[in-house]
Design brief:
The complex is a heterodimer of chains A (126) and B (722). Chain A has five helices and five strands. Chain A has helices at 16-28, 40-50, 66-76, 91-100, 112-123; strands at 8-12, 32-37, 54-58, 82-86, 104-107. In chain A, helix 3 links the parallel strand 3 (54-58) and strand 4 (82-86). In chain A, helix 2 (40-50) runs parallel beside helix 3 (66-76). The longest helix of chain A has 13 residues, at 16-28. Chain A starts with 7 loop residues before the first strand and ends with a helix. Chain B is built from 26 helices and 22 strands. In chain B, helix 17 runs antiparallel to helix 22 (537-546). Chain B starts with 5 loop residues before the first helix and ends with a helix. Chain B folds into five domains: 6-144, Four Helix Bundle (Hemerythrin (Met), subunit A), CATH 1.20.120; 194-292; 322-385; 387-571, Heat Shock Protein 90 (2-Layer Sandwich), CATH 3.30.565.10; 574-721, Roll (SH3 type barrels). In chain B, strands 4-6-8-9-11-10 form a six-stranded mixed sheet. Chain B has a six-stranded mixed sheet with strand order 14-18-19-17-16-15. Classes of the chains: A alpha/beta (126), B alpha+beta (722). The interface between A and B is medium-sized, with 15 and 16 residues.
Chain lengths: 126, 722
């Protein structure tokens, strides 16, 4: 039983492997991955264009860091549902992102069950 | 099965008393043991007490105490055989204290519910804790043996190569093994000796719980309830830190608070991310804490007097219900009133012209009865007396617990345990002393670092000295801490509105010292949960006033504070000598202790001004309290127009006033105007039973006169305050 029902998803990560993993995961759970960004600037452009219902946001990226992307998005679209995607070593930055408006976090390497649990909470799905 | 048999019931009471006694003894011995962990005498005594506790509890089927005592006996027996165990596992002493608290709890519950004799979950958990400790000792011992054996083996293995003089390898080998050994013995106990403080807040417990659980989370060995326990400990840490936060750690503390909020709001899990987050944060926070390595210790030195006292044979006693004694005492009180009636009759007989011989006989009988009654009262008051030790034995433990909690070191010396005190005073005195002792440890004593910096011994002293004076008991609590900071107390009292700035300016240092007894006044900037909430000292004062107690403060800034309580010996508690006086048409009585002097002053020497009247007496200006005005009493002449001219006691007619100069807790130089002094007599004070009466502003009770009239007793302190 897939969790999603065609919700649009934007994946932001500088690593193709990570993007690919998330892409497969979301597709298999009934979400519609509408875009993938490789850095912070691309993330902002794609977000403007696509207005995704859910965004996964990496923190350590070229050009614009995830934290800065989040700040800008929160300023303009405070209701957007953003999940921070990061490794454990960035725990304190992740918590800071949650404080300024990100809904949840997912931990690299991804564990499907945990990612979906975070998505459920972020989107208020039962 | 519980104790229900009628015959057993009385024995059961004795059993409970015995256990209570044992508990107190254990508490004291534990404090001694903590100080001298190898005292084989104390260790054996503890073993013996556990043994007999087990025995008697089994007899009365008090299964819970019996089981716990049995396990503790096993533990003590191990320690008795190898008294180095305690220094390796100082936690055992906490375990023994905990056991004692459980015994105490069981005994008090047995009072309500005679069937509270089986093991509860908590008891089982505690027994498991003891067992774990016993196992640990066994295992640790075998570990040590193993390590030692390995060391020998290693050295033996190295011996052949000695020919090649491979001293480096030998050294390395030995050092590895010895370090291993040291770590094996220090692992637990070392951690136990580290305490974390931050701006005076003791964070050791929270930090310990958090670190322990973080370890579990990291290894993925956590139980479902661990996350909650962790959050609770983290919240406790945050709460404690937030209260004492200073600039240096402000942002870290805020981060902890935010983290905890997010954790619950976003329904996060205690996963790797959170473990890392809290772990990294705690590690950084810990760098801001002050770390202390030795555990605070306290020593209870019992006075030589008391230790010999302990060996004295027990006096034979009977058990009497306290209520029965009180009832008896009340009857004695009524008898005293009756004997006053006899006195009264004597005068009536004389006035009625009864035969002088008869009158003399009557007078003799009346006096004898009166004396007998006073003796009766005195002996019954003595029955009510108990030794100060009843209160004092609690203090070594109290001081230990407080100093442990706040990271101070204190030594407690007690002298005068055998001084008798009336049982009715016990609760109030104990409460007062708890406040004073707490304040001494919490406010008075400095931290070990501060003490060393100011050239004092690391460990502070709190001394309790009880002495029997001629007509009073004097209880002194003296510490060698920082003393009272009068400037700060003055400033605080003004700030809190207890006194005005003008009053403050006019205050002597002695008067300023007494400010510590005002309500809501605490100069410790950071409130702790021990003291510092500013309630307490005022309570002490109010309670002691009830017993005519007096407080003496000896403040030596920088060197210590001593607070003394002087309590009148109590066989005169219920009866007092008092003068009877008439004001307007009303009769009042005023205890003699409230009277400084009675003076007659010519009317022209009394000066009236808008705030009232004053007169001069022995170069002092005495002001007059307008009792008639205060109590709204009618003038005698208005109420009794036919006032008899035989009103000889009043000097009013001769152009003079009679003033009673009051004696209060302060040198107030105030007086009340009496229309007539009716005489002096022994009164039996009855406290007001109705709350409404207790609120009466200028009285503290009532008394029954020999002729059956009820008279209110004036309270000089309350009058002076008006």
């Amino acid at each position: 039983m897939p969790i999603g029902s065609g919700q649009s998803v934007l994946i932001v990560d500088d690593s193709p492997v990570m993007r690919q993993m998330l892409f497969k995961l979301f597709q298999s759970q009934g979400f519609n991955v509408v875009g993938q960004a490789r850095d912070g600037e691309e993330a902002l452009t794609l977000f403007e264009e696509l207005k995704p219902e859910l965004t996964t946001l990496d923190i350590v990226m070229p050009k614009l860091r995830g934290t800065e992307v989040l700040e800008k998005l929160m300023e303009k679209y405070p209701d957007s549902k953003i999940i921070m995607a990061s490794s454990v070593s960035d725990a304190r930055t992740v918590m800071h992102c949650l404080k300024i408006g990100a809904k949840q976090y997912i931990i690299k390497p991804y564990d499907e069950e945990k990612v979906m649990a975070a998505v459920r909470k972020a989107l208020n799905l039962s | 099965m519980s104790v229900t048999d009628e015959n057993l019931a009385e024995l059961f009471e004795q059993y409970k008393d015995e256990v209570r006694e044992t508990i107190e003894t254990l508490d004291n011995e534990l404090v001694v043991l903590e100080q001298d962990q190898t005292s084989s005498e104390t260790i054996f005594s503890l073993f013996r007490h556990m043994h007999s506790l087990k025995g008697s509890s089994k007899m009365f089927n008090v299964d819970n105490i019996a089981t716990i005592a049995h396990r503790l006996e096993d533990l003590m027996s191990m320690i008795d055989k190898n008294n180095s165990i305690l220094s390796k596992y100082p936690k055992i002493i906490d375990l023994l204290f905990k056991g004692n608290d459980i015994f105490r709890d069981i005994i008090s519950r047995l009072e309500e519910d005679i069937s509270y004799t089986s093991m509860t979950g908590d008891h089982l958990a505690f027994v498991a804790e003891i067992q774990a400790q016993i196992d640990k000792i066994n295992r640790r011992d075998s570990q040590l043996v193993d390590a030692a054996r390995k060391l020998l083996d290693d050295i033996e293995n190295l011996l052949p190569s000695m020919e090649e003089l491979d001293t480096e390898a030998l050294k390395k080998g030995i050092s590895e093994v010895t370090t291993g050994l040291a770590l094996a013995t220090l692992e637990e106990d070392g951690a136990n000796q580290i305490r974390f403080n931050y701006n005076g807040a003791d964070l050791t417990e929270s930090v310990r719980i958090m670190e322990e659980l973080l370890g579990k989370f990291k290894e993925g060995k956590n139980a479902p309830e661990d996350a909650k326990a962790f959050v609770d400990a983290a919240n406790a840490l945050y709460g404690a830190l937030a209260e004492v936060a200073t600039e240096d750690a402000m942002s870290l503390i805020a981060e902890l608070g935010d983290g905890l909020t997010l954790f619950s709001e976003r329904q996060l899990e205690m996963d790797q991310m959170m473990t890392e987050f809290f772990g990294a944060l705690l590690a950084e926070l810990k760098q801001k804490f002050q770390v202390e390595v030795e555990a605070p210790a306290i020593k209870a030195t019992r006075s030589a007097k008391s230790s010999t006292a302990l060996k004295e044979p027990q006096v034979k006693t009977i058990r009497v219900d306290e209520a029965k004694i009180d009832l008896f005492l009340e009857s004695v009180g009524r008898l005293i009133t009756k004997s006053e009636i006899l006195n009264h009759l004597q005068f009536s007989f004389r006035q009625a012209g009864v035969d002088i011989g008869l009158l003399r006989d009557f007078s003799t009988v009346s006096r004898t009865i009166s004396n007998d009654i006073v003796n009766l009262q005195r002996s019954i008051m003595e029955v009510r007396q108990v030794e100060m030790n009843n209160i004092l034995k609690k203090f070594p433990r109290l001081v230990r617990d407080i100093s442990h909690k706040i990271g101070k070191e204190a030594e407690m010396n007690i002298v005068g345990e055998r001084v008798p005190i009336d049982k009715s005073l016990l609760d109030d005195v104990e409460q007062a002393m708890v406040h004073i002792v707490r304040n001494a440890v919490d406010h008075g004593l400095e931290t070990p670092d501060e003490r060393i910096a100011s050239g004092k011994p690391r460990r502070g002293a709190v001394n309790i000295n009880v002495t029997q004076e001629e007509a009073a008991i004097f209880i002194e609590v003296a510490d060698d801490g920082r003393g009272l900071d009068l400037a700060r107390i003055r400033a605080k009292a003004v700030e809190r509105g207890n006194i005005t700035a003008e009053q403050e300016a006019a205050m002597t240092d002695k008067e300023a010292e007494m400010l510590v007894f005002s309500s809501g006044l605490s100069t410790k900037d950071q409130a702790t949960d021990l003291s510092g909430r500013g309630v307490g000292m005022d309570v002490v004062m109010t309670n002691l006033k009830k017993w005519n107690g007096e407080v003496v403060i000896d403040n030596r800034p920088g060197h210590g504070l001593s607070v003394g309580l002087r309590l009148p010996v109590t066989n005169t508690l219920l009866t007092k000598e008092a003068i009877m006086l008439r004001v307007g048409t009303s009769t009042f009585c005023l205890p003699l202790e409230c009277v400084n002097e009675i003076v007659t002053v010519p009317k022209e020497d009394v000066h009236h001004h808008k705030d009232g009247a004053v007169f001069r007496h022995r170069d002092m200006v005495i002001s007059v309290i307008d009792l008639k005005g205060l109590l709204n009493l009618p003038e005698a002449d208005e109420a009794r127009p036919a006032s008899p001219p035989s009103d000889a006691g009043s000097l009013e007619g001769k152009g003079t006033y009679v003033f009673v100069i009051l004696r209060g807790k302060t040198d107030a130089r105030q007086s009340i105007l009496a229309d007539e002094i009716l005489g002096q007599q022994k009164i039996v004070i009855k406290e007001f039973e109705l709350e409404t009466f207790r609120k009466l502003p200028y009285f503290n009770g009532l008394t029954l006169l020999g002729d059956g009239r009820v008279v209110l007793i004036l309270d000089s302190d309350k009058l002076i305050d008006s």
